[in-house]
Design brief:
The complex is a heterodimer of chains A (251) and B (319). By secondary structure, chain A is an all-alpha fold. Chain A has 11 helices and no strands. With 319 residues, chain B is α/β, with parallel strands linked by helices.
Chain lengths: 251, 319
Amino acid sequence: MIFTIAGREMRSLFLSPLAWSVLAVVQFILAYMFLSQIEVFLSVQARLVSVPGAPGLTEIVVVPLLANAAIVLLLVVPLLTMRLISEERRSQTLSLLFSAPVSMTEIVVGKYCGVMGFLLIMLGMIALMPLSLQSGGNLDFSLCAAGLLGLLLLLGSFAAAGLYVSTLTVQPVVAAVATFGLLLLLWILDWSGSAADSRLSGLFPYLSVLRHYESLLKGVFDTSDVVYYLLFIGLFLILSIRRLDADRLQH
Amino acid sequence: MAAMNGDTLVKVEHLSRYYGDTRAVHDVSFSVSRGEVLGFLGPNGAGKSTTMQIISGNLAPSAGQVWIDGHDILDEPKIAKAKLGFLPEQPPLYRDFTVDEYLDYCARINRIPAARRRPALNTAKERCGLTDVGRRLIGNLSKGYQQRVGIAQAIIHSPPVVILDEPTVGLDPIQIREIRALIRELGGDHSVILSTHILPEVQAICDRVQIISKGELVLNDTIEGLLLRMQASSLLAGMRVMPGEAELLAIAGVRAVEMLDANRVRLHYLPEQNPAEQLVEKAVQHGWGLFELTPERISLEQIFVDITCDEPHVAEAAA
């Protein structure tokens, strides 16, 4: 049942030009960043050879690419999640799901899986770029894997937050703007940490989605980072289910 | 709900629904048996759609309970919802899907096993006259066809209970006839609840009628009972030689005489005491020159207006 709903969601995405243009634009921007990063690497490569323990190909090209990809996708994911519920509510198609023998959990998880399926395709296309370097150099695969896992978890969190915001409104554009605001806020939460304000200074950076991604990008696989993302995703999915349930109670 | 009759497919008890302080539905109870077509009538904003949304599980009631084939819609939503098909006022269509894709999706979310999906889809399309448009985009179809897709969606899993909220809106007269025939056909082995404000539609296809007004059920009657209510209680007579009022009042059963002009008169009579026969006899006897005799019928419209407008004197006249 979940996959039926997920399948429809993906189909709907690909039937609209939005998904295609998002894929194209993201790929183009990241490809440009990738190429400029390679140029940097080529210019310093000669000097790096003489330095022991110097950063390699992966650190110089792949890690910055993934870090930039996270920022680009922060802008893009709200556009993909905005329609999930709000569009159905606006065109009043939600009652199709509500009067079918499907639980709220199946609806929410189905829709989440649908958008994640799309994001996985996007992630796969992004991953192809660093992997192509393998033909001419040596990649640190574990570092790449940690970075890609981090990006996947980050995208999962973005999508969950976007899905929840989409359940709150009837207007897809409002959902997009609100999701973007929420994600950006969660991103920059750790800025206040530098203000060195006693006890809180530890909390805000910890809540920041960026912080946990950075450690994964360094190749540090810490269970607590992964659990942070899983909790984040779970929290927003449960909130979405509760929100949809509440839909029937009040109008 | 152990005491429930096996043939009662829908049972609604003391249903109430408030939007904030606004009372949309208040203490509505009724039941629908297998093979019955129930017409739900009411002016705009009377609570028809709210009631239907509650029965279909789209909206939770503030109070009261709904059972679909013995299963409470709130306690066992999956079992209850598998047994109903719902067409909301606005058909829930994905405009960028083709008819086939859309109906296939509906079949899937209604948990029709893969092997039975194709036959179910074909049957639904056939019943709703959609065989030729299967590959077209729903968004490009005319309103009438979209409405049919909406109905097909509601019956694709051949549920015992079909709930249709204004199914013939936006259809042309031929399509309306087809859809009505379809609803009648559905009434054979399903229960159908149908909301409408088109009165002849109710007369044409429903077994039973309910009128809802300001959130309350004000009439619950069979079509036969309703026809009885609609029966004439007055005669219109035209005579060349108009007799005096007293002479007309003397005819058995005549309750009141209303002179319309020099040659025409309206005779009000008590129910079951139609004086037409005696009037004709007397007219021949006395040479009144009777040239017109029309039984006047109260239209369903009149009953509807009387009941929903809450004006006691009119209601009395209609009774």
